[in-house]
Amino acid sequence: MSKMDAVRAMREARYAENQARATRSGPAARRVKPANAVPVAPVPADGTDEGADEGLCGHRNMSGRTCTRERGHAAKSHRYS
Q: Is pTM beyond 0.90 here?
């Protein structure tokens, strides 16, 4: 058997195993919420951020930093600190 034949056989075996796993039902097949998910605080209906100072934009980036520009700024970018 050549190297390419061996690679093809491994790929087909892996595909068959995945197909068999997908057709089985059970608790492992269901998606569950991860145990370490961080709860997200609800945003107030009026659009204000509770922790933001008055007069600041308050936009948050993915790492949790907050924009320090004035509220409603015309600049396209935010300044985070």
A: no
